[in-house]
Design brief:
Layout (H helix, E strand, L loop, with lengths): L1 H53 L20 H4 L2
Length: 80
């Protein structure tokens, strides 16, 4: 009679520990994501500032290549 209660209590303790760990990891992921986007923004700002100072022009974006004539084109992309 005691064994099922002990197993249930251990499972509950394990579930609570996993839940706490998951919440901590989710919080850390949100923090790292915010830090990534802040760093990406600062990098762009610094790049623009360096280009203004040095007078360099921004490199042109490469033009997308057209698909070959016999390539498969899904219908979903034609509806856009």
């Amino acid at each position: 009679m005691i064994l099922p209660w002990a197993v249930a209590a251990a499972a509950l303790a394990l579930a609570v520990a996993a839940w706490v760990l998951a919440r901590r990891n989710a919080r850390r992921l949100a923090q790292l994501s915010q830090m990534y986007w802040e760093l990406k923004y600062q990098h762009g700002e610094l790049r623009a500032q360096v280009q203004r100072i040095t007078g360099e022009a921004a490199p042109p974006a490469p033009a997308p290549e057209p698909p070959p004539a016999n390539a498969f084109i899904p219908l979903a992309s034609l509806k856009r």
